[in-house]
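Annual report, structural modelling task.

Input specification for the adenosine-5'-triphosphate complex:
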Amino acid sequence: MVLLQIRNLNVYYNTLIGKVKILNDLNLDVDYGDIVGVVGESGSGKSTLGYAIAKILPPNASMTGEILFEGVNLLNLDEKEMQKYRGTQIFMVFQNALNSLNPVKKVGFQLEEALKIKYQKMGKKVSEDEIYKEVIDVFKDLRLPDPEVIYERYPHQLSGGQIQRVIIAMALLLRPKLLIADEPTSAIDVTLQAQVVNLFKQINQEAKISIIFITHDISLAYAMSNRILVLYAGRIMEEGNTEEIIKDPMHPYTQGLIASIPKVSKSSGKLYSIPGLPPSFYTLPAGCKFHPRCPKVMPICKEKEPQEVHVNNRRVRCWLYE
Ligand SMILES: Nc1ncnc2c1ncn2[C@@H]1O[C@H](COP(=O)(O)OP(=O)(O)OP(=O)(O)O)[C@@H](O)[C@H]1O
Ligand SMILES: [Mg+2]
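The model returned the following structure:
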């Protein structure tokens, strides 16, 4: 069953040097219970996609297309109607987590407030003690040291990793239908990352929360998701089942991302990286946007942009498969 349907989504940013199209005719279905890993290098448009879905794009942005959440086109909702969705139905964990907390309120209080709003909307009466305990329990799940002390702290008194976990706590407490997690573990120690990733999986399984997991790290997307979407220059290059993509990547860009995963047993001692850099949106190359960096480039790739084609249960945008 489908929770979210994105249809022909285009997102633009207006800047001093003109209007640029970032997301290009993007289509995506997210089912109930899905974890979709969104991967791609810095600047590929991953956060923009998250902001678009939650309708929190910056003021210089505009979008066209449809974002259907349980059949309702979010693009048709005004801000007041959208407020009913944000937080309890759609929740986004930001890449810069600190910005999503109120600097002058204790973190425990902020989580309490969010929980109270949730229970109010549900028409459920819950005591202060129960709410406090719920918050502390989630802190413990997230391995926050001295949960009772953290509860009393202000955001600026916490480390980046602790802030990130407070925001994740918020997501775990609110249990939205759709959780958009934008690089949620980037500030957390690697040793803790696995535990946090497991918590995401746990809420996904227990509460059937669908997750859009944004990361530049395809190995993290592999650990997390059942589907992967590979973005490059605002375009879907490949999309499909996670196991299948990792086992048999079809797009040369996906192949490059997988080859760049650091291996613990280094045979040559050298780490592969995709040559070159992603293009600027102001000076996108003609043809396939990846062609200047592609090891399999053909003459047609420089002239004409390939369309997405469906091959074996997968979407791929590459002339090799047209
Ligand atoms: N408010 C804005 N105004 C103009 N351009 C923007 C704005 N925000 C982002 N961009 C540009 O849009 C493109 C996509 O940015 P986005 O933040 O979505 O990428 P990303 O994949 O999340 O990158 P990262 O991995 O670094 O977080 C980039 O070229 C970025 O410079
Ligand atoms: Mg980002």
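The CA atoms of residues 3 and 31 lie 5 Å apart.
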